[in-house]
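Sequence design from tokenized structure. All designs in this work follow the same two-part layout: the structure record, then the generated sequence. An example of the structure record is given first.
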């Protein structure tokens, strides 16, 4: 699972994590109701096509007023509907996470304090569909974190986007740096268990032999040799968020340099507008050419978010590789 806390400065984790989610639990504080970052989370979840969402209204033990609670739930449902989620149908579970954590009971289904948590997990099981995993495609895993194990090598962690990786196989480390390295996977671990292989959908740590901690970083990908290349320049179809959606209030012009969030990385890039297009207004759909300052593992169909000054201003998809 990926934790995406609600503080505005954690939105970056939301972007890198959301691109890989099969479903989401939206936690909303009942006393506060939906906050600005709640809105941004929902908007981002829609942009990166998180398929389903379940809501947990937290801290309900701090509210005595049933009518007020109903209003907060209504507000959350309206927010979801506004972002093309089925707000009327989404399960909304009310409870208190703190009460469950402080419970002196056994946290079983009969434990009153843990009841809402069980309800939440039941809702996740029944409402969020189990996705089909693309295991037949070439292996690719965006790197989320890296750490060294003394005497054993370097571990890269992440969620396998597609394919299968087996112990003993060669993989390439691609993107962010000018050179592409080939290394051997000497171990695969998931939740402290050693595996023979990892497959699409698994959150794993891959132990890599013969590579220093400094030679691999978040934002690169591990991939089957020859299956994907690093690129800096590509064409993209982009939707620019309107002011009402939390986007820019003003147009932007040729040479605009925002941050492009691709998989687990953010890279500055300059945009080139089509001939004859002077500027782009919030709310526009536009084709553009993007030139990144660092190469990233890129191919047609890869989606990205565009951010500027701590907020999301657009979402796009790569349509053609240029160089």
């Amino acid at each position: 699972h990926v934790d995406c806390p609600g503080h505005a400065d954690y939105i970056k984790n939301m972007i890198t994590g959301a691109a890989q989610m099969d479903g989401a639990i939206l936690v909303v504080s009942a006393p506060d109701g939906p906050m600005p970052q709640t809105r941004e989370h929902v908007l981002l979840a829609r942009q990166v096509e998180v398929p389903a969402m379940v809501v947990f209204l937290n801290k309900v033990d701090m509210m005595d007023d049933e009518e007020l609670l109903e209003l907060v739930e209504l507000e959350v449902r309206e927010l979801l509907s506004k972002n093309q989620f089925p707000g009327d149908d989404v399960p909304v579970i009310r409870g208190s996470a703190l009460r469950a954590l402080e419970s002196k009971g056994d946290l079983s289904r009969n434990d009153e304090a843990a009841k809402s948590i069980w309800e939440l997990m039941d809702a996740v099981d029944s409402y969020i569909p189990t996705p089909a995993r693309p295991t037949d495609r070439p292996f690719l895993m965006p790197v989320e974190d890296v750490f060294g194990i003394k005497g054993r090598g370097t571990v890269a962690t992440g969620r396998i986007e597609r394919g299968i990786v087996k112990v003993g196989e060669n993989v390439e480390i691609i993107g962010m740096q000018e050179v592409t390295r080939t290394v051997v996977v000497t171990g695969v671990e998931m939740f402290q268990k050693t595996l023979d292989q990892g497959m699409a959908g698994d959150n794993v740590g891959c132990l890599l032999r013969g590579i220093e901690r400094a030679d691999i970083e978040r934002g690169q990908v591990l991939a089957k040799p020859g299956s994907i290349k690093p690129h800096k320049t590509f064409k993209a179809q982009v939707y620019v968020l309107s002011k009402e959606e939390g986007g820019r209030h003003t147009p932007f012009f040729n040479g605009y340099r925002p941050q492009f969030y691709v998989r687990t990385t953010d890279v500055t890039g300059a945009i080139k507008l089509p001939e004859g297009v002077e500027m782009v207004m919030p709310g526009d759909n536009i084709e553009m050419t993007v030139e990144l300052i660092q190469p990233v593992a890129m191919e047609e169909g890869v989606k990205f978010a565009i951010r500027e000054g701590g907020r999301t201003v657009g979402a796009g998809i790569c349509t053609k590789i240029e160089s």
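The chain has three domains: 8-127, 140-223, 230-322. We note this feature because it recurs in several other targets discussed in the main text.
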